Amino acid sequence: SITVSLFFILFSKYLLNFLGISSGSFLIAGGILLFLISIEMLFGKPSRPAMRNVDYSSEEQEDVSVFPLAIPMLCGPGNIAALMMFSTSAWGDPKKMAILVIVSIIVFIIAMLVMFLSKLIESIIGITGISIIQRLIGLILSAMSVQFFKNGLVAIGLVK
Fold it and tell me: At residue 158, what are phi and psi to the nearest 5 degrees?
């Protein structure tokens, strides 16, 4: 997961240039994607891969593309979009890039600790506490997504 994240931090600018995508366009698309993820978090409706004990049809169970097997959940589309957006805005500034890499590593360490201690955390704050935290983070993520969208509109010249 951290390797995939570091790849997108270090090479996202080249990837976007190769694909002919402006950073403004990517900020808008990433903002929309993050907004959709935040809506799921705010309303507490997990996406299909996150749902457990769901009886999919046999065709869906056999289809490998239903679950993201190649890239773990910690480095899914939302994380990749956020990392690419932050790294394109930090491009050319070694301090900002180093901070982005360090913060990414710290976030992965925190995520590892939270997953390791998940049963203990659940016993302390309960399902209701987890739901409250999920919704608060969803609200913060939705605000970030709107800011990314606005920054994208400014970058492509539609808004001053």
Answer: -85, -25
Which pTM does this prediction carry?
0.71
Backbone φ, ψ for residue 112 (5° rounding): -60, -45
Of 72, 85, 75, 77, residue with least CA distance to 144: 85
- The residue with tokens 């995520």 is 111
| Alpha-helical segments (H) within 2-76 | 2-19, 23-43, 58-62
Q: How sure is the predictor about 27, in pLDDT bands with cuts at 50, 70 and 90?
A: confident
CB 46 within 8 A of CB 131: no
Burial of 69 (0-12, 13-18, 19+ CB in 10 A): exposed
Q: Which residues contact 66 (CB under 8 A, 6 or more apart)?
A: 48, 49, 56, 60
Sequence-distant (≥ 6) Cβ neighbours of residue 33 within 8 angstroms: 77, 78, 81, 145
Residue whose entry in the numeric block shows the structure tokens 């589309």: 77
Q: Which of 141, 150, 151 is nearest to 39 (CA)?
A: 141
